[in-house]
Write a structure and sequence with these properties.
Length: about 130
């Protein structure tokens, strides 16, 4: 059964602000099917000026705090890039990409349904590594 990918209406280049970008990333995250035990915070990292675009980098850091361990043993980060083209009209929607901290694969939100398992795998692999050290 093909899952429907929920997506959001991205802002246009002329309406973009760093804070609006963060809010829209939060809006996107709210469409993901992730158990409520996962908590996250998102933050703006940097602005990058390129010849044909401006790129805004963000990070959402995920963990599962518990009463016993309010600070999770390991966290998983998802990195987002919001791209504003200098070649397209400034009324065009921004483009958004994301990647997991453990991966070089860059995904578009409208093409991939985010999977909670990706976060679980990162956290589990880090815990295994911590225990080995």
């Amino acid at each position: 059964s093909k899952r429907v990918i929920k997506t959001i209406q991205w802002t246009t280049g002329n309406n973009f602000t760093v804070e609006r970008g963060r809010q829209q990333i939060e809006e996107l995250i709210s469409t993901w099917d992730i158990h409520e035990s996962w908590l996250h915070h998102s933050e703006f990292l940097e602005e990058e000026e390129l010849k044909d675009s401006k790129r805004y980098h963000y990070r959402a850091c995920w963990g599962i705090p518990t009463r016993r361990k309010p600070i999770p043993r390991a966290t998983a980060s998802v990195y987002f890039v919001i791209v504003i083209s200098k070649l397209k009209p400034d009324t065009s929607p921004v483009e958004v990409f994301f990647r997991l901290e453990s991966s070089r694969l860059i995904r578009r939100p409208e093409e991939f349904q985010f999977r909670e398992k990706w976060l679980q795998d990162i956290v589990e692999n880090k815990i295994i590594l911590i225990e080995r050290l």
